Amino acid sequence: MSGRPVRTAVATGRCRESGAELSSRIGLFGGHGRGQTVGMRKTRIVPRRSGVAMYYLLASMVGIAGFCTLGVDWGRARLAKSELQAAADAASRAAVSGIGMGVSAAQDRAIGVAAANRVDGVPVALDRDLDIEFGRWSSKDRTFSVLSGWQRAGANAVRVTARRTASRGNPLPLAFGGLVGKSSVNVEASAIATIVGGETVVSVDAKTNPYLAGMPAGTVGIAPPGEDADVATSNSYVLVSGISMIPGSSVHFTVTGACSNDPKVRRVGPDGNVNAKRMFTKWKGMPEHGIAPLTAPPNCLVAVFLSDERPDLSPAPSGLDFSTAKSRDFSTLRPKLKQVFFVGDGRRADGSIQEFIVPEGATRLFMGTMDEFEWNNNHGAFHTTVKAASRIATVK
User: According to the model, what pLDDT value does residue 232 have?
Assistant: First the structure.
């Protein structure tokens, strides 16, 4: 061959192959399927993603900022709620302390005390007619019944509601609430205060069976065969009303009258027949309807503290024994729930007043007389003044 250059058909363009034909030939020679190449590196172009990541970052930052701002406003609202509650508590206690001086004086006290408290830096303002309510508080049902007009003079409790609301024109402003279309929020708190304790007078009939205390009408008492059993409410317990039972507080009794468990036996005073040949014990020393048995002088005045539930729904505690003069000459007595105890005339041998401590969980006080069974044929009555320690308390 000479040194002259050789011109190929491809170079001269005289034999052109299409891209499809070339690819087909490569596939045939290489024995590879579709989409495969021989001796060639397949290159894929990866799109740039830095812009998308930036969008994600910005969205996350906005979300975090939103949560932070909402957290600030939530904390501010919680603080305002606590401040309103403190103001309502103080104002209700101030109002109930002034009930004895009249409705207007009680309202003035509440308004003055509320104004001394600040919420979000602003003094608390009360509406005399809308925010200060007078009513009756029931410690048994834990309910507040609103009184109006002249009836308010007979109130034993006051409910005060402190408000920061849009309807009053003073809602709590939000620092960042505008971001979610809410520039303020309504916050309010209320409190009920009452005078607990006090004094009441009850008449305890000799036929009053303390072991029917807290039981529904028709409940039958235990009696020996052949004896007439007591039935609620014919031989009903006496529920002391008009005073509040505050656990840990003290109750005092002043008693007059006389009773007898037998028409043939003379009536004796509230200490009972302390000279009897034997002391009385609840029949066979048995508890009844979940209430503990008692040993004490015949015909003495007794009592028992109960909670709101029926006493027969739980076991009775152990019984108490007041068979000796020493056991009855206590200065302070701490009976348990459902534990019948000796009251007598409410005084020690030296004439000093005895103190009875209200047990935890007690909401009711019942009174009766001491017998072994069959209270229904007893005679006489005790006239009892029950006095509980008075104090102002926030009850709800």
Answer: 87
CA 125 to chain centre: 28
Last residue of a domain, one of 195, 229, 249: 195
Helices (H) and strands (E) in the chain, counts: 5, 19
Query: What are residue 308's DSSP bridge partners?
Result: none
Rounded-to-integer distance, Cα 378 and Cα 298, Å: 11
Contact call for residues 244 and 363 (beta carbons, < 8 A):
no
- Determine, yes or no, domain membership for 236: yes
Report the distance separating Cα 236 and Cα 395, nearest Å. 30
- Higher pLDDT pick, 146 / 154: 146
Domain that holds residue 78: 55-195
Bond prior to 233 in cis (omega within 30° of 0): yes
Most confident stretch, 6-15, 56-65, 127-136, 146-155: 127-136
The predicted-structure confidence for 177-209, as pLDDT tens digits, reads as follows 666 677 788 999 999 999 876 788 999 999 999
Among candidate residues 142, 163, 195, the one where a domain is terminated: 195
Q: Quick one: tokens of 231?
A: 């039935």
Judge whether 200 lies within some domain. no
Hey, what are 58's tokens?
């910005």
Q: Tell me, yes or no, whether 390 and 314 share the same domain.
A: yes
pLDDT at 233 over 90: no
Torsion of CA 285, 222, 214, 197, to 10 degrees: -50
Asked if 229 and 165 sit in the same domain, the reply is no
CATH number, domain with residue 286 = 2.60.120.430
214-224: pLDDT as tens digits: 999 899 999 89
CA distance 16 to 19: 9
Handedness of CA 361, 367, 369, 372 (dihedral sign): negative
